[in-house]
Structure formats: structure tokens, C-alpha cells
Fold these 2 entries.
Entry 1:
Amino acid sequence: MKPVVGGWSLRRRVITLLTVVGVLLISLAVAEAAMATRNRTQIDAVLNQTGPLRVQSQELLNALLDQETAIRGYAVSGKPADLGPYRDGLAQEQSVVASMRALLDDYPQIGQEMRIVEERAANWRKTVAEPVIATTEQSGTRAGQALITDQARQQFDQLRSAVGDLQREILVAREKAAADVRSSSNVLVVLLIVAALVVVVAGAVLLLSLDRMVVRPLTGLANQVREVAEGDYQHRIATVGPPEFIRLGEDVDAMRQKIAADLAEVRGARERIEWVNSQLQKQAEELTRSNRDLEQFAYVASHDLQEPLRKVASFCQLLQRRYAGQLDERADQYIAFAVDGAQRMQRLINDLLAFSRIGRLTTGFVEVDLNKVMGDVAGQTEAARQYADAELTWTELPVISGEEPLLTNLLANLVSNSIKFRRPDVAPKVHVSARLVGAEWEITCQDNGIGIEPEFADKIFVIFQRLHSKDAYPGTGIGLAIVKKIVEYHGGRVWVDTDVPEGTAIRFTLPALPTDVEAAAAAEAAGEPNTPTTDDPTPSTGAPGARAEQTDGSDQPDRADEGPESGRTGDMRETVG
């Protein structure tokens, strides 16, 4: 029975927690931004308003004192030069007042005190300073000094008192702005601490929640899965926690059940396979023994048949020579049939004997120069070439690893076939060439004979398979089977190229020596154009499509009726007839 899956999912719980934390952090961030803006405004008020106002108020007081001092000095001396500080102080007063008014928009109380100072300064100049200047200029210093009375001094003291009130008001405004800065800074710090506490608390809650909702259920699931992995496939997996984990546990348990069922099926199949393998092994051993016995039988039979067959052939020939013409025509025909059958049987037994010896009687692989082998082949086929007026040519051939007698037999069979299957009234031409394809030498024997139809390209390599009657082309039908067995014994493959325009091209591959492969790779890397190495894939056995060989940087057709160019390095020609 499946457990009931209910409650909030893990995704919903995490999203809810993160949403709450995010809202709190965003709210705190907004409050901190507003408080930081306010704090910056308050600091700006302290630095750029109340601070300069205090300095300017002191400059205003100094300007007023300069004016009062200058008026006293002029009343005593009567010199116009003593009025210079008065005029400078007046100009400075006007400049300072203009600067202070530009900073008083946010401070109406200070502006009111400023107006009082301006009114009293103007009243002092009107009632004291200007009358003293005018009286001193007209009536002399004594008359000017008479105007500087205690009342005039009290009037200026009131002006100084107004300036003091202005400075005190500025100081009060500055202290208030500084207190606001400290308060906003403290609030900003508190907000930062609250934000840090929110992050810490949210992290702790998330960690505990993950431990309870994720880590513990996953650990329990992992332990149960480990038990199953150790071989207890019957252990039922049960999971607690969020709905996702419960569904995961159900899926894992379903997978366990499927694996258990599959394993039971695999065990049964393995038992059946082991039984089949044992039977196949027995059959393979029996087949190996049977093949060995058949090879031995073929060898012994063909060897033991030699002597009685020679006797039959010899006595039939003796009968033919002694009684030829003495008996009737039918008796001569019967004796001729017996001699021909004995001779054909002898050739067939010899070919079977040769076929059975391939790969069984071995002398070991050595390095074989195929040019020397072709010389031997030319000698072996000389009589047949003289009879057919045939021409045999070959290009420079490689040195490979193999058994020289078998390779000689291989090439002799191919050349003999090319001479035998010739066209009437056409002199046979046979050409043997080689090219390096990857790590193999591809060797081609091409002639201008009767050719092979594509549908028979694979059939010619089967033992005893003939495409023509023995009267048209004599033979046992085992030559190309011997060729195929020798090539495969040397690790190669053989096929008929049916794309040649004339005659027959039989191609086969033999493994190249490592030195030849390395030399070709080095030449290709150096960019030499005369390398025989090609990246074209070699066709599989019986597949046409191999390209013509490439020698000395020019494409040469791989055809028997087009011999090598005269004077070409490495070419050989054997012409008979």
C-alpha cells in the first residue's frame, strides 16, 4: 500500500521561507536607504549650513567692530584715511549678510535674528556713525567727539547683543543638526544589526529545516538503497519527509522491484546460456577434432591414392601405346577416356594435397622479396606463356613477411589463370602491381582476358566451383581456392575488382612491414607527393572499387594491356613469344 502523500512540498516550504526572508530584507534595505539619505542630508546641514553660518556670524561681528572703531578714531583724528576701515567693514558686512541669507532658507528663527541685527546696524549707522562723520567734517573733532555719548555706546552694545543672539541661535541650530546626525546614525546601525540578525536566523532556520526535511530523509533513503545494492533486493524501501521524497522513494522501490524481476529472469537466462555454451563448447571441440581428422584424412587419402593412381595411369598409357590401332575405334576411345580420367584424377589429388598442406606444414614467416618471387613465377609459367604468346610485366614490388613457397604458389596461380582464361586471337597481357594502403600492401594481378561477371565474383574462390566446362578451359577448379587460403593464412583478403574496363583484376592484401608504414607516414607528413600511402579504404573481400596504383607522382592504370612506361625506375618486363 502506498503511503499518503500530503502537506506542503519541499519546494513550497523553501519558497515560502525565502519569500519571508526576502520581504524582511527588502524592507530593512528600504528603511536603511531612507535613513542613509536623511543622515546624508543632516550631515550636509552641519557641514554646509550651520558651520559656515557660525563662521560668517563671527565675520559679521568683526565687520561691525571695525566700523565702530573707525568712527571713534575719525572723531579723534579727523583724518579721512581713518574712515577706510569703516567703509571696508561696511562692505564686508553687506557681503557677509548676503552669504548668510543664502543659507537661511531652512532656518527661519536665525533669519529673524538676522533681520534684528541688520535693523540695529542700520539704526546705529543712521543715528551715530553718519552724524559723527558729518559733524567732524563740518565742525571738527571736538564736535564729533561730543556726539559719541553713552547713549551711542549703549546703542552699539545693543547691536553687539543682537549679534550674540544671532550666534547663539546658529549654535542651537548646529547642535540640533548634529544631534539629528547622531540619532540617524544610531538608527542606521540598528537597522544593519537587525538585517544581520534576520540573515542569521533565516540561515539557522533554513539549515535546521534542510536537515529535518532533506538530509535525514535522504540519508535514510540512501541507507535503504545501499542495502538493496548489497544484494538484498527483497528489502522494501519506505521514505518519510516531503511529498517529493516520498514519491522518490516509491520510484526507487519500483525500480528495485523491476531489477529484482529482471535479475530473476537473468539468472534463468544465464543458466540456459551456460548450458548452451557447454553444448557449444562440446560441439566446437568435436568440430575441431572432426576438422583435424578430415584434414588428416584428406592428406592421407590424397597421398595414399598417388601410387595406385600412378599405376592406373601408367598401365592405361601402356595399353594406349601398345594396342593403339590394333583394336577397334571404340576400344581406342575407351582407352583414351581412361587415360584422361586418370590424369585428371591425378591432378585433382595433387591440388587437394596442396590445399590441405597450406597452413599445416609451415616453415615460418621470413622477409620475402616479391620481385624475386615474380622472377620464379616467370620461370614456372614460361612454357604456358610461350604457348599463348603471353606478356608478363610487373612494377617494383615490396618486401613482406610470409612463406616464400606459398607466395610463389599464390602468384603462379594468378598468372596461370590470367594466361589460361584469355580471349581468342588476343595475346594475353598480365601485369602485377602493388601500392601501400594504410598498413597493408594491396597487390593487383590484372589481365586482358575474358573477365568475370559481377554476380560470379565471390563464387570463383569456392573450392571446385567452375564457371566454364572442362572442355573449354581445363583445370580442377581449386586454384583460386588455394589463392584465397594462402592470402588469409598471411592475414590478408582477396577479391575481384569488377570495375576494370577490360579483363580481370584480382586484388589481395598482405600486411606491410612496420618500416614501410613508418616511412610512408613520414613521407606523408613531410608533404612528399610520391608517397604510395593512401587514405582510401581498401575494399573488403569480393568488393570492387580499388583505385589504380600511384607511382612516381602520376596515375597509372592498373591494366594488363597497358604495360609500364619505358625507362621507369623499378619496372620489370618478361616477354615470351
Note: The first strand starts at residue 366 and ends at 369.
Entry 2:
Amino acid sequence: MLSESYELYRVIEHRLQMVNDQQTHSLPDAAADLDRVARLHGLQSGQQLLDLLAPHVEAVGTIYDDLIEPEDDRRLPLDEEKLAAVIAEKNLIEGDSFLQAIRRWRSGKVTALRSSAAQESFEAILPDLVDAIATAPNSTKALARLDSLIEKLPTAINFFRILEARPALLDLLGKILSHAPVLADALAQRAELFDGLIDATALDLPPSVEDLVEQFARMEPGDDYQMLLDRVRARVGDKRFALGVQLIEGHHDALAISAGYARVAEAAIQVLTDATITEFEAIHGKVPGGTLLILALGRLGGEALTHASDLDLIFLFSGDHSAESDGQRSLGATQYYNRLAARLVTALSVPTAAGPLYEVDTRLRPSGTQGPLAVTLESFYKYQRENAWTWEHMALTRARPVYGDPAARAELQKEICDILCEEREPEALRKAVRKMRLDIVEHKPPKGPLDTKMMEGGLVDWEFIVHFLQLKTGEALYPQLGKAVRALVDAGHLDKEMITAHELMTRLLVALRLMSPDCDFPPETSRALIAKAAGQESWDALLDGYDRARQCVIDEWNRHLRPDPDEILGDII
């Protein structure tokens, strides 16, 4: 058809040149001239010539349009009726919801879309955005979260331009909005988190703590302490967001991602502590012979955080507690280190322009919230040996120094090990552990059926068994629970299935903190993804494995921590 049309056009062109005696490619305006051209072509009238040309013009135009589509033709119509027709053609389940959302986005009332530049970038990506959300695993939730994200964005220009430049990120956005409300909320606060995903290395696990410290500590000329705080928060936020994406994309084992979260947190502590000390010393000087140490407990001590984990920290200092600092505004050692510790908690937890970093929990320090925030090493050792409760020693089994002079950290770890190895009366220990678990059951029941920590036979019960055996035997005193349970299995103290139970429930915990933080059953569209993150082939296989894991924990609990005859049946496992 194209070659036939070309030959016809060339013949008519020659006829035109014969009539007008000039180089021309346009049909004449006058009817008489058009009739003359038609008669040269053997036709009776100009109308017959137009009729002859019409199908060729239409065919060539269609081919041209297919080859070179005007950019604006892809955009969704501004006209309400035409927009409704386009949405209807897509057969979207949430067609009406999409229409309402698009009207709201175009209303001029959304802060992020008020400027002409923002509107331009938004309209360019809107058709693909609609398609991506419509085909997302859970399009209903994805649309609602997208709407919330756009409402919260301070500006949308860069966000939508990135999506336009990298179409593959649209699919990823659909997954985030479908499966991970925690990441969707983070995006709403900091849309620039998406920028980091352009680099292919964003889907690699974080490097060592030492390498992360180097990355986080980089400063630009003119940066001050507050600027460094913002930079660290932004860089840590990027790493944590990328780890969440890695989990959703299935790039790495959830256990490896959990360890990655811990490395990021430890590096942040080291960089912010160094910077805060430098800032503090500029005013108050140094305490001669004194040094600060930070002891991590809980999941950070065990190097296995989730996206939602807080940081359990104890602040300690060495040297003479009666000494004074040598700065312009001198302080006694105790006051010095307590003020410094308070500054560090603020640096780690108070939100800035780059958002919050971590929640810090210092309640595990000696004497709890009634005691000072920072204490001397000597008073810490004395408290742990003479006054600490059993549950405090259970917590101490996961203690790990994360800041301080290497020699001082090694000495602290050795002292903790010596404290934990002290001989205990097994029956008194058993009763104390059971009493603590009964208190937790009473005051902190499970949030939902998938509360992997608090459910009967869940991770708390699993941890209690491991800590009980560590304190009873003085063996397997590793802060990392995976390492500890393997040592206890090798020593013949535990069933080897406790290893499998720990790994499954920990993977599940990491996944649920991102995808179902309310601990309820997730939407069906997210279940396969959660099962995969937990290392299971299907949702049914996950539930079966979860039940077996909990039963294994219950059996081991009853073997090592049998109930007392006078306990009320059902109060505890």
C-alpha cells in the first residue's frame, strides 16, 4: 500500500506541475484548477480526484502515526468524560477509585502538585503509573497508599521524573505500595529514598561495619555537627529502605538482611558517637583517664535487627568517677558522661530534616529508669554480681560492646562472660525464669495470630529456653542466638529442630515487621511473598512450618522449664 500510494502521489505531483508550470506539491485551491488536474488524470471532476486520494492519505497517515506517536497522545485526557472512557476501557477493578484519585490529584489542592513543573512531570508518568498500580499484586491497597504518598510528598517533581526515566522502578513501586506499608510511609516522608535505587548496588547487602562507618562519616566542606547528623540520618535511611526493598524483591535471605540492619545501626552509633564526643569536648574538654563504652543488648547485641527494632543500649565509662574534665566548662566525671550519654540518645533518636533514626531503649541499665544513664564500669560489675535480677542476666547473655577502645571492649566482654558463668542453683533459676515469663504473659499478650514473638511457643519462649540453658550450664555464651543454639545442640542440651524453629520464626518476624506490622494475617496477595521471605514454598507450607516450630519450642520448654504443681493450668506453656 505504501509503494502504491507513493507512485500515485508522484503522478499527481507531475499533473500539478503541468497545470501551474511551477514546482509545487500542493493541490490547487480553485475548483477549476482542481478539475483540470483531474481531467489530466482521466477523471471527470476534482471531487473524483479527492475520492481517489482519500484512502491512500488515510492509510499513509495511519502508518505514520504508528511510527511516530505524539508524546501527548499517551497522556490521560483532561476532559472528564474522555478520562472516564479511557479508565473504563482498561477494565480496572478500582475504576471509580482511580477516577476520584485523578480528579483530586488534578484539583490543585495537593501540595506536591501545585507547581506547573510538578504537574508536567506528573502528567507525563500518570498513564504508566495507573497501569503499574492497576496490575500490582494488591491494587486496592496500592492505590490507597499511592494516594496517601502523593498527599504527603513535599514535592513530586524529582520523584515522578525518576519513574519516567526508569520504567522498571514503576513495578517496584507497585510492590512496595502493595506489600510494604512501612516502606510506603517512609517514601511519603522522603521521596528521595527512591533515588538510591537507581544504583544497582542498592540491592547489595551492606558492607562491613568499618566500611559503613567510612561511608556515613563523609562530610562536605562547611558541614557542621548538625549537618553531619542530617547526613547520617539520610544515609542510614537509604540503607534501611534498600534492605526492605531487598526483602520484598527476594534478593537475599531474611537472616542476612537482619544482620545487615544490625551492621547499619552499629555503624551509625559509632559515627554519631565520635561526632558527638568531638562536639562535647569542644565545650567541656576531656576527663583525664576516662573513656566511654556503649554496650548493646537485645537484637542489636545479637546482630539481628528488624526494620522496626529499637536499640537497647547501656552507657558505661572508665576512670576515676571523682575526676573533672579539663574544658572551659568543667564537669565532674559522672555528670560529664551522663550529659554526654543524653546527647548521644538525642543524636540517635530525635528527628531532624532527614527524619528520625532509631528508638533508643536504656531501661536495661543498672537500676533501670531510676538509675543514672551512664555508670562506671566498676559499679556496673558490682551491680551485676550483687544486685541484678535473673532476667537482667538473661538480657546480659546478648550483651556486646559496640563502641569504645578495642582493649576496653574486650575486657568488658570478658567480665560479662565471667559474670554469666557464675554458678547458679538450677531449681531457683528455673523458677525465676518461669516467673518472668508469667509476668510477660500477664502484661504483654500477643497482638495477633502471627505475633511471632509473643505467641505460645514463639520467639520469646525460644529465647527464654536458650538463656536458661546458657545461665544453667555456663556454655554457649554467644550474643548471636543462632550461634548459641547451635552450640547448645552440639552439647546435647537441645533438640536440633530448635535451630530450624529459630530460623523460620526469625525470618517470619523480619518479613512481618515490613509487610504485616499488626501481626494479623496479611492480605492473600502478600502471603506468597511472606512465605518466600520465610524460606517456605507456599503460605500453607509456612503455616505448617510455623506450627511445627512452635510445637518444638513448647516441647523443649516443658522438658527444661516444667510447670510447678501449684501453677494455674493455662497461665503459661
Note: Residues 68-72, 568-573 have pLDDT under 50 and may be disordered.
